[in-house]
Every structure is written in C-alpha cells, then in structure tokens.
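Retro notes - structure team

What went well: the batch runner handled both jobs without manual restarts.
What didn't: labels got mixed up in the shared folder, which is why I'm recording both outputs here explicitly, each with its sequence directly above its tokens.

Job 1
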Amino acid sequence: MKILAIESSCDETAAAVVEDGRRVISSVIASQVKEHILYGGVVPEIASRRHAEAISGVVGEALDRAEMNVGDVDAIAVTYAPGLIGALLVGVNFAKGLAFSANKPLVPVHHLRSHIAANYITHPDLEPPFLALVVSGGHSHIIEVRDYTDFHIIGRTRDDAAGEAMDKAARAMGLDYPGGVNLDRVSKDGDPKSYKLPRPHVDGSEYDFSFSGLKTAAVNIIHNAKQKGEEISVPDLGASYIEAVVRCLRENTEKAALNFGFDKIVLAGGVSANSRLRAEIPVMMALAKFRMPTSPTIALSVPPSSRNIDLTLSNSAV
C-alpha cells in the first residue's frame, strides 16, 4: 500500500510517499526556519500563510520524486492534531480536497503517534510492545506501546515540555531560534557541572516530568549575573541545563522500563535529535541490562541532521 502523507503542524510543510508504512519512496520538506529566526520563534499567522503558499508545490514534488501521480496512491494521510491550529487547517483542508477530488480514503494522523511510528521506518524490524519516550517542543511523554494502535500513557509533563524548556532557556541565553538546536550546538564544549541546577520531580508521580522550575532557575542565574555585571558562560550554562533536562528524562524512563518490565525502548520526537539525549539513553540501557532478564534494545527515530533541511521547490503542482 502506498500512502501520500501530508504534514503542516508547525513551521515545516512536508509531504512523503510511503510504502507499507516502512519504506519512504520520496520525502520533501519546505522549511520556514530562516524567516522565523527574525522573530525569535514561530509566528503562527506567518506559519499558516507559508503553508498555504508551499503545500501544493511540496505535495507535487513528493509525487514527482516518487514518479507517481495522485491516482497511483492508495490513500492520503494528514496530521490533524496536535499543533498550531491555523497551520493544521492548511494541511487538513488541502488533504480533504485532494482526497475528495481523487476519490481516495483520507486517514487522520495523530502527531504524537506519528513520532513513535517514525521508528518503524528507521528500524523496519521494530515491532510492539515497547516503551516510548516522546520528547518534542510541546510534549514529553513516556508511553507504553502495547500494539500498533494500542497506547497507554505512563508519564507526562505537568507543565513545560522538554523542547519548550530548552527553547526558552536558549532564548534567555541570547541564542537564535531554533533554540534547542543552537543550545545543543554551543553546549558541546561546555562543562555540565559548572552551574548548579535543580533536578525537578513530581511528588507522588514518579514517571511524570516538570521543567518549569528548571527553566526559572536558569533564567534567574542569567538575571542575577546581569544585575551584578557578571558574564555567564553560555556553553557551560547550556551544558549544565541540558544535563539537567536529560537526567530527568533518563531517570524517569529507566524507572518505567524496569518497573513495567520493558527491554525495548524507542526514542521519538524532535528533541530526540539532541546529542546529549541520544548518547545518554543507550548508556542507560547498557546499565539497565544487568537488572533485566533480557538484553535491552533501543531505537532512535530522528537522525541528528533532520531538523536542518532547507528546500528550494520546483514549480510542480499536484
């Protein structure tokens, strides 16, 4: 089965043709990052307008690269939630019209489920059940994936998501959008022990996350230094901050894996591209194997360079 997939939940217009949910035949992304850098973050109204301008060309390019037309696909899938409502409406309405005109089934796709499902493309042999750590700009979840469509949420953030916490801390440090990516880049040479930051937890909910206090602590360090006329080391503070976020993600995931008996962990979402997180989770699994009856495995869905795509579209249309 070949499915034309459309995504417009935030600041990138994307389309792909995928066969049997495992093989990507073509994939096209139009990025808006350069424009939103001017404002220090995604402006929803601008994002929606750029989606409207790009979506026809992106979908057409994806079909062209697959050497297909819309009549050749078996169904059309589109992200329907969660995301920026205006941006989502562009993709959903385009997909609705295209599916209706081509007489194809329309498949609504949940954004977080698709993060998890991306691992089936990266790792074709992956099968449920497994434990998924989903970390993105708006979400931080530990999810028990019992089957392909059977999910149970074990833990979630009580306030800010990990990605949002990184983005806002990066902005406070004077880094450009996208904050999480730039924070990761500048922090690689920093000392993660140079600044003392809290390790937030949620009383009575050992698998839940809370990042708002950590973000506030970093902002207070920056403000106090400015009031005293002191300079902060962005690489050191960034490394300390990322270390604190990743430690929270790691510890809760490790507890969930051990307590629920999972020897297979999937890492998904945009923040899974963070180099510290990608290095830390396999270490966690290597240590955990001594407490598990079977050897644990891990799947990573997002390649480190996946957020740095900028595409010049041709003028092809659907």
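Job 2
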Amino acid sequence: MFARTILVLMFLLAAAVAPITDAAEQSIADTIKKIFATPTPPPRKKTSATRKKKSPTPTPSAKSKMSPSPTPSPTATPKKKRSPTPTPSPRRKKKISPTPTPSETPAGAVSPTPTTTPTPLPPAFTPSPPQQPSATETPKRRGAPNATLTPDAIKGFENYPPKVQQLLTSALELTTRDLTYTYGSADPANGGMDCSGFVYYVLNKNGVTDVPRDSSEQYVWLRRAGKFEPVLSRKDDSFELENLQPGDLLFWTGTYAIERDPPITHGMIYVGREKKTGKRVMVGSSDGRVYQGEPRNGVSVFDFKIQRPTKSENGKLQPTFIGYGHIPGVR
C-alpha cells in the first residue's frame, strides 16, 4: 500500500510537473520566437536601405507579404513634395531670364554699336577740311582787300632822295603780297606782320639796323635822336605838318589798351601825296584803317589824316596822332 501511495504521489507529481514543463517549454518557445523576431526587423532596415539604393529589389520580395506595401504610397507623397520643388524652377527662370537674356541681348546689341561709332567719325572729319586757315583769315580783313600803289602813282617820287626811294619801293612792294595784320610778327614769311614789325622789317632791309622792335621804343629812339616833330593840331593843313617828309615815321596813341610808357600804340611810314587824288597816303600794317573810304586789314596803303573827335564816345579809347619823326641816316 505504501508503495502504491508512493506511485500515486509520483504520478500526481508528474502530472503536476507536466503542465509546468509545458508552460516552460512554451515560454522558451516564445523567447526563441522573440529572439528570431527581433533579428527580422534589421533585415527590414536593410531592405529599406536596399529600397533606397535599389528600388526594384524590395518589390519581388513583397509579392506575398507586401500586399500592405501600398505603404510605398508615402513615397509618392514625397513626389508631391518634390512637385513643389519645380516651383523654385520658375524662380530660377525669373532670375535667369532677366540676367542672361538682357545681358546677352545687349551684348549682341553692343557688338554692332562699335560698328556704328566709327560711322559718326567720318562726318566729324568732313567738317575739318572746310576749316582751313585761309577761310579764317578772310573774315579778319573786315572790309576791302589790301590796297597798293606803284612809285609812279606818287607825286614827285622821282625827286625823292635815293635812300627814301629805295625804302618806299620796298615798303610798297610788301602791299602786293596780300599779307594780313599778324600781332607779334616782324617777318612777311609768317603771312603777316603788325605795325611796328612792318617798320622794323623795312628799315632793317634798307640798312637801318639800330631801329627798335616796338613802336613805343621807336618813338623814344627818334626823340633821343632829336628827330621827332610833335603835332597837337586837329587839322590836316596845320603848320605842324610843314616839316613832314616822305619816309618819316608816324605815331599814334590810343589805338588799343595797353600798359606802356610812353603809351605809343601804332606806327606807319609816310609815303607822300597820291597823284590821282592829291591826298596824303601812308604805308604799313593795320587792322582797320581806311583807304578811299574802305577799311583794310593787313599790309596796305592807307589815307593819312590827323582829324580826331574832340570827345570820346562812352569813354572808349580814340586813336590820337601825336607826331612824326625823321629816320636817322635816310636823308
């Protein structure tokens, strides 16, 4: 009986232990499943990585299980997110369209413009030929052309002393060269001369080498030599002109404004009386003195008159004849 009871107890223990072992086995199996279940997700991560790299590979593996794989539909949603990405593309078009298109089009338009720039240059050169010095010289004369006389047109010229004839002949010859009044010039090779330059050139050519260059100095030169005759009268038939002889130098003041002491501003050479009119004439260079009622500009023959207004007009300078002088060594 005891043995039976032991057997019964053992059977009961075995029966009790059996469910426990079954539960243990089940728990062990569950843990094993969990263990195997946990490694399964990393291959999913690998598959996700593979999907990123190789989109076709996950698709065959998903034939059986990937029916829920419409989940890649969220991948389509990023396509919608990518769809707004084209929106910056118009921005690029807005930025690109202004910068290249205007810059390129003017670049193409600028290339013809240098071709157009040389075209205005020829018209710029075309006006230059008409601007010749000869054209600029003609208006300077402001009147009739230069007047000239031959020695035969001078009354009593044959009776002049030989040195006076030679001096006046060379002076009248310069009136035939169409020389202008050129301030600062004492050489006809320059195309013109001023008044004192004319006197200086003629006297030097005829052996009077000690004559000064300036008209004021020429006046002082004759005063010191005791050869000057002052004239204060306003009449052409004044007794103060009784000693006036052909070849004498004539002097004026007030022909233009200048700081000079003495203020002599103009000089010429007295020629004598013209046969045709009987009037006194002189020769030299001027920028407006008159011959036969017409102003001349340049080396010419001019009428000699000492008449001058008693009053100045609006305070302007008035030419004033002050006297004449005999050239030393000519008579």
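One thing worth noting from job 2: The first helix runs from residue 2 to 37.
We'll revisit the folder naming next retro.
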